[in-house]
Amino acid sequence: MVDIVLLFGKILFLALLYLFLLAAVRAGMGMVRTGGTRKQPKGLGLTVARGPKEILGVTLPLSGPIVVGRSPDADLVIADDFVSSLHLKITPSADGAIVEDLGSTNGTLVNGQPATRPLGVSVGDLIEIGTNQLKVVVS
User: Fold this and answer.
1) If 0-12 CB within 10 Å is exposed, 13-18 middle and 19+ buried, where does residue 95 land?
2) Which helix (H) or strand (E) holds 19?
3) Which of 5, 31, 49, 70 has the maximum number of C-beta atoms within 10 A of its C-beta?
4) Predicted confidence (pLDDT) per residue in 99-127, tens digit
5) Tens-digit pLDDT profile for residues 20-47
């Protein structure tokens, strides 16, 4: 009786192994037909245009809300005395993105205008936080 159970166990194991290999080969063939991995459509990003040399040129994709500040809890940390702990939030929207000052001490400028309320931004717009400058780009 034990021999029959072991035989069925071996057959079941081989069948599962065969199905796994078949799925792996089919996935590999799909990648060959499509030319490898698929490229993600381009969206908006946020680039540090002026600021500390450690983060200068860094680009973050705007795939979700980004909080900018001096705190380690921020998504983009800028170590500058003119930047509040949680300074501003940038949220993607259908038309581009929305910049919202989070009650910072020194304020936020969008294209040279104070962001006293949530403002819409698009590609090429500049966001200034003290001496730091962020630019909305295509990522």
Assistant:
1) exposed
2) helix 2-34
3) 70
4) 999 999 999 999 999 999 999 999 999 99
5) 988 888 877 666 555 555 554 568 999 9
